[in-house]
Specification:
Length: 413
């Protein structure tokens, strides 16, 4: 068996990796990376920037990947074989190694001026970048700002490593070794607990309009729901995110539907619910809305103003009554008597699990950290205070386990 033959049960078994190589002396290390990715079971297609071709030849990557290498948007024969849009759709993972300072700047700002940056915009696959550059260029405020933008969008950043550099300097900016990059990619993909499972997530607040300029809202930031959607996608799920009005970037690989009011959220959730295996309702749905939305801006009258409010539909409770209902996970944000109220909601709404969190001073809403108490029929588990990303990951692991237990129980009553 040759070293680069296809490994059927490696940690990246059949994963389609689009490897982007940008210009920098570390580009030569990407050749070893292709071999390592294939050893791990991945199928690899390489896209090089024009600058990268000054460092390594196309033929090297062609031979190692076993696939044609693309370098330009304007290669008609290559476009005819697999267009850049098909290539973007083909990828399960996009990994850019090395990612030069210039490439990071271009993708941070959404430019699409060559094939690689265009693919980054066109794909829904998770994106990982492994920056490599001179240590001063890495430390430069512009590069750091670009990296911060990318991280905030859910782009994974591998490295850079510290050590001696090709330019003779020593510092932070080296490309991690090929085996380290493969390990980072495998770890970032998580345990694929929800491979192919369809997960619907609601997130954020709802806004209930009073008139064209005013609304009733709440302090939900949407961060927890977005983190849950991202964690589900990392676990291999096909994720649809119904988002209330928040200014958060869409997590990689997630299909997003934006809504504003509780009734719009209800319609989007009900339309999708039966086609999903799991519904995680992290949205803080407004309980009430004004009975009437005034068509013109309400004026001060010098008198008290009474708003007549009517109750909104309880979305998750309605999903629980559907003939083909998904596994249902609710959230309960409480200021006091957390466990008692959460337990009561679990039962009343007919949920499979509820994630309860204490809200109040510096906890819960509008912040990056949280602690969750998970309750399900017959069990409970406390997840300690952690950032919302880590907490979302733990939640997804518990949801996958409880759902499997429920399915097994249904199969063997
Ligand atoms: O009743 P309460 O709002 O505390 O319940 C919280 C859970 O119910 C959350 O999962 C929330 O997304 C969901 N919910 C809903 N529709 C509502 C109110 C809450 O789906 N109208």
């Amino acid at each position: 068996m040759s070293e680069i033959s296809y490994m059927s049960d490696g940690p990246l078994d059949r994963v389609r990796v689009l490897l982007g190589v940008s210009g920098g002396i570390a580009a030569y290390k990407a050749a070893e990376l292709v071999r390592r990715l294939r050893d791990a079971g991945a199928e690899v297609r390489v896209v090089m920037t024009a600058n990268a071709t000054h460092f390594v030849g196309v033929a090297t990557f062609q031979a190692l990947s076993g696939n044609p290498v693309r370098t330009s948007l304007w290669d008609e024969s290559a476009e005819a074989a697999m267009s850049h849009i098909e290539l973007a759709r083909w990828a399960d993972e996009v990994l850019i190694a090395p990612a030069s300072a210039d490439l990071l700047a271009r993708i941070a700002h959404g430019s699409a001026d060559d094939l690689l940056s265009t693919l980054v915009l066109a794909t829904t696959a998770p994106l990982s970048v492994a920056p490599a550059m001179n240590q001063q260029m890495w430390a430069n405020a512009a590069t750091q700002a670009n990296i911060a933008i990318l991280r905030q969008r859910g782009v994974r950043v591998f490295g850079p490593a510290v050590g001696s550099q090709a330019c003779g300097e020593t510092g932070e900016g080296r490309l991690p070794e090929a085996h380290e990059l493969v390990a980072a990619l495998v770890a970032a993909r998580g345990s694929r607990l929800l491979d192919g499972v369809r997960v619907l997530v609601s997130a954020g607040p709802t806004f209930e309009d009073i008139d064209p300029v005013r609304f009733i809202g709440n302090r939900s930031s949407g961060k927890m729901g977005f983190a849950v959607a991202a964690a589900a996608a990392r676990a291999g799920a096909v994720v649809r995110l119904i988002a209330g009005p928040v200014a958060l970037p869409t997590p990689a690989g997630v299909e997003r539907v934006d809504v504003r009011s509780a009734r719009q959220m209800r319609d989007a959730v009900i339309a999708a619910a039966s086609a999903h295996d799991i519904f995680i309702s992290a949205a803080a749905v407004g309980d009430y809305r004004p009975q009437m939305i005034s068509a013109s801006k309400l004026k001060k009258s010098g008198q008290p103003l009474a708003l007549e409010l009517v109750q909104n539909p309880d979305i998750i409770a309605e999903v629980a009554t559907l003939p083909k209902r998904p596994f249902l996970v609710g959230f309960a944000a409480e200021t006091d008597d957390l466990e008692r109220y959460a337990q009561e909601k679990l039962e009343r709404k007919g949920l499979d699990m509820i994630a309860a969190n204490q809200v109040g001073e510096s906890l819960g809403f509008e912040c990056g950290e949280n602690a969750l108490l998970l309750l399900w029929p017959g069990g409970r588990e406390q997840l300690a205070l952690a950032d919302k990303g880590a907490l979302a990951q733990s939640l997804i692991e518990r949801v996958a386990a409880r759902r499997t237990a429920k399915l097994e129980h249904a199969g063997n009553p």
